[in-house]
Amino acid sequence: MHWGVALTGGIASGKSTVGKSLRERGFTVIDADQAS
């Protein structure tokens, strides 16, 4: 089974920090800002 999670929030709400933490734990993270 695969799961998808979306991180949303305002400016300076910690989305990048959470994304970095997930990457460090082996999760695949797709950053929409970098993908555009």
Radius of gyration: 10 Å
| Helix percent band | 25-40%
Order of helices and strands: HH
The coarse overall form would be: globular
Continuous helix count: 2
Mean pLDDT: 93
Question: What about the largest sheet?
Answer: none
Percent of residues in beta strands?
A: under 5%
Summing up helix and strand content along with how strands pair, one would put the structural category as mainly alpha
What does this structure look like?
The chain has 36 residues and is mainly alpha-helical. The chain has one domain. Helix content is 39%, strand content 0%. The protein is built from two helices and no strands. The chain has helices spanning 15-24, 32-35. The longest helix has 10 residues, at 15-24. The protein is globular, with a radius of gyration of 10 Å. The mean pLDDT is 93.
Helix-strand layout with pairing:
Elements: H1 15-24, H2 32-35
